[in-house]
Every structure is written in C-alpha cells, then in structure tokens.
Amino acid sequence: MLACLCTVLWHLPAVPALNRTGDPGPGPSIQKTYDLTRYLEHQLRSLAGTYLNYLGPPFNEPDFNPPRLGAETLPRATVNLDVWRSLNDRLRLTQNYEAYSHLLCYLRGLNRQAATAELRRSLAHFCTSLQGLLGSIAGVMAALGYPLPQPLPGTEPTWTPGPAHSDFLQKMDDFWLLKELQTWLWRSAKDFNRLKKKMQPPAAAVTLHLEAHGF
Amino acid sequence: MAVPVPWACCAVLAAAAAVVYAQRHSPQETPHVQYERLGSDVTLPCGTANWDAAVTWRVNGTDLAPDLLNGSQLVLRGLELGHSGLYACFHRDSWHLRHQVLLNVGLPPREPVLSCRSNTYPKGFYCSWHLPSPTYIPNTFNVTVLHGSKIMVCEKDPALKNRCHIRYMHLFSTVKYKVSISVSNALGHNTTAITFDEFTIVKPDPPENVVARPVPSNPRRLEVTWQTPSTWPDPESFPLKFFLRYRPLILDQWQHVELSDGTAHTITDAYAGKEYIIQVAAKDNEIGTWSDWSVAAHATPWTEEPRHLTTEAQAPETTASTTSSLAPPPTTKICDPGELGSGGGPSAPFFISVLVTLALAAAAAAAGSLLI
Known about the structure:
The structure holds two protein chains of two kinds. Chain A is mostly helical. Chain A has one domain: Growth Hormone, Chain: A (Up-down Bundle), CATH 1.20.1250.10. Chain A is 63% helix and 1% strand. Chain A has helices at residues 7-10, 27-55, 81-86, 89-113, 117-143, 167-199, 202-213; one strand at 79-80. The model of chain A is unreliable at 7-21 and 203-215 (pLDDT under 50). Chain B is α+β, with helices and mostly antiparallel strands. Among the domains of chain B are: 32-106, Sandwich (Immunoglobulin-like); 113-196, Sandwich (Immunoglobulin-like); 208-299, Immunoglobulins (Immunoglobulin-like). Chain B is built from five helices and 24 strands. Chain B is elongated. The chains are: A mainly alpha, B alpha+beta. The interface between A and B is medium-sized, with 30 and 32 residues. Strand 1 (79-80) of chain A pairs antiparallel with strand 15 of chain B.
C-alpha cells in the first residue's frame, strides 16, 4: 500500500499576494502553469521510459494492461465528463494542487528506493520541477484569492512500508504512480486551458479579430 | 378435319394435368441454401432420390452435362465463384422437379482489420472495421468494448454499416479500452482485438474551409484562413494547434509552419506571380496525432500588371476595377494639354500618372521575360 509522509509539503510558505498595481491579472501565471505542465509532461516521457525499463517486463511492454489493483490512495485524474466541465475554478485548482502534492510525495518515496544513481538523479530533477508546478498553482490560487488546501487532521498521509508488500506489488504501485502522473499532467493542461480562456480579458479577443482582417 | 381438333384439346388438357400434378407433388417449395468453400469439391445429392435414379441437373435453367453426374448426384470439383447459382434436379423422364439447391461459393473470413479514432474528443470515439479480402458471402460482425472490466455500448452508425460509436463517460482515465470484433459467416469465424489509451486515438478531422487570398500591393504574400473542424466539439477547452504547408505548384518541396493559435496566417515568402497550393492540418494541443491534410487551397500572390492578357483588350477605364491599386487614371487625363501648362498642384497628378505608366511598361517587360 502506497503511503507517504508529507507534512513538509502541506506547510508551504505562504505565497505573497501579487502586486495589484498594473496587475495583468492571473492570466500570465496561468499561462506559466500551463507551460510548466507541458514541460513536465515532456520530462516525464523520458523518465517513465527509463524507469519502466528498470522495472523490466512486463511493465515496460506497450500492451501491458493490468487491472487497477492496489494503489488506492493515488489521486486519480479520471473524472466524469459533465462533472469535470462544471467544476468551478476554485475546485479545479484545488484538485490539481492536492493531486500533485500527493504525487510528489510518492515520487520522493520512489526516489529513495531507486537502484541506479542516474535514475535517482532524473527522479530528483523531476521532483524539483514538480515542486515548481505546485508553487505555480499556489500562486494562481493566491492571485484569485483562494486559500491553499490544508490537510484535515487524521488524513495526513504517513509512510508505512507494508510488511507483506511483495517486490512485484511494489513494482505495480510504481507503474500506476507513473501512469497516474502522466494522466494528471494531460488533465492539468486541459484544466489550465479552460482557466486561461475564462480569464482572458475581452479586449484580447477584439485585437485578435482585427489582426485577422488587417494586412 | 374435325379429327385434329379433339386431339389438340386432349393434348392441352394432358399438359395442364401434368403441371398440376407436378406442382402438387413437388418435393420442396424453397430451394435449400448451401455454402461451400472456394476451391473445394462438393457433391450435391438430388434430394431423397436413390443413387441410381435417372435425373437431369440444371443450373439457372441451363442443362448440365451428364459427365458431371455420379449416379443421381452432381459432382462439382474446384469450385469457382462462377459456380454459384440455383441448381435443380429433375426426374429425367417426367421433368418432375425433385430438388433445388441455391449454391453460394465463398470463403471463411480472414482476420478483420479494426481501428478506432476520436475526432470528437472529449465526446467519444468511433471504431470501424473491414475485411482484408472479400468472402463473397454474407458476414455478420459483433463488436464489444471493454473499459477495464466495464462493458460499454457501441452504437451502430446510422449511415455506415462498418462503424459504431462509443461515448466517453469518464475522461482522463488510466485504464485502457479494449475493443474486440468477431466476424462470422457460414464457412467460418475470425476475431481480433485492439487495446489503447484514451489519449492515443485522438485525431481531429482536417480543418475546413481553407481559403488562400492574395494580399493587395504585396507580391510575396498570401493570406490563409481556415476553420476548426466542425466535428471538434469544444475548441475552447480543447484547443487545436495547426500545421500549414505550402509550395508553388512548380516545385516539389513544401514549406511548413506550425501555429499554436489562431485560424489565420500570412505567408510572407511566396515567389511572386507563382500559383501556390496550401494545406492545413490540426492536432489537439497536448494529446493524440495530427489530422489528415485539408482540402488544398490554391492562390497566386498579387502582381502589379493584369493577370490575364484578355483583360487588356478592355477599355483602359475598366482595367482599374479589380487587381491593382496602382491602376492608372484614364489615359485621356495623362495627355491633357491643359495640365501641362499649369504648375504646382494640378501638375502633380500628371507627374504621378506618367511615372505609373512608365512603371507599368517596365513591369510588363520584366514579367514577360520571367514567365515560364
């Protein structure tokens, strides 16, 4: 069972509110967050490939399609289509923030066990980037005036390496972690696209219109 | 004289009786339908007749040679498609129909080819299939869609019979979809399946309404506009990026431009006077693959002189109507002696119009030498 000690993450230093004078709004930081998800997704592709090869077959086979067993505590990106559409901005951002907080924690756990130095290096680099994404999401939430999610007492995840956890099951957990991470990054790109469009000031739309007809 | 008439009467009556007898004693109304494999041998028994019964076989009304018979059974070797037809065997003497077989020569199905695609993400996806080679006999297809362990409904396409549609219930799923198809006919059965992630099958339809226009006063520019494919349901939340390619018709090599936003682009390095072919493709910003290329648009950049020789035959006043903003004023004005005498303002237009005429002449000469 994947579990994680992550008290550190939940108490990120409070992000100072953006300077409101001449404030272009949360738009640029949403764009930045979107760009970060793309960068991370790109980074993950090579990292996942290397890590799955390290796990060996069948995990690195493209047709590998196991049933989703175990890894119940992993934050799942999958969501009902209509529910996803109707998420309000605060909930959308909160879900992203909480998901990446958990995923980062699990990734750090992965790093602890990784065998080769090179893998540890790649994982560490990725964790740093993921931390940056978290900070970026936090910045957007602060700019919009939303409070950062705080963990409820008792639900704080703690690391407990299960005694009966076999090597194979551990690898399965690793597999699902990487899969869920990739899916979350795709989902976030869509989430931030939606936020971007909503935040876009109307003037921008008019300018684009003019440009299309001028020469 | 009176004698033949009663004989004719009797003959007709006898024939009528025979027909009625045959109809009432016909062994079967509908032919037996039989499917046989191409290239195989088949022996058709004449219903329940004894082996040594005297029968004649016909196919589609044509007699068959008796050397094909083995007793009362018809033997066909090395079946070909042409052997398909309605076979009937008759009692040789009474022409009484004993048995009918509708023979269909065909093949068992080979492994079907199945593919799935989402051009309406996030609404859903469709799967389509076909057989790599024909069976020549009717086939039935059965498609099942599994998402993890959940069975999903694949709704038949109203127009195409080898396509069905699945609606996404959940997005951003880590569990793969498995689509299986089984095809069967009277001679055999085959099946195949494909497994894929939600994101890998996303492929939009090509952009629509690609229009390329010359830009007035700009001989090296072409303005291209297009629309997002109408099948893409939500371009706001799922924006598309575009890939433009263009080349002059006379060259083989394409120029490429990738555009992350917007549905318009101005080409600024077109060869003057050359007709261009332009195409656009679309892709979801983050997932899936590029669409096919759009229908091609053709355009030639703006040129200074009239494009077609036929328009020069028109009166000079009318050449100013369409192409160029440098169209000269009517020639009468240029040669107006009244303008030559006065200085200052009125002379300026005359000067410009003279320059224009000279420029046009020079351009015409230059263009004439460039034209291939």
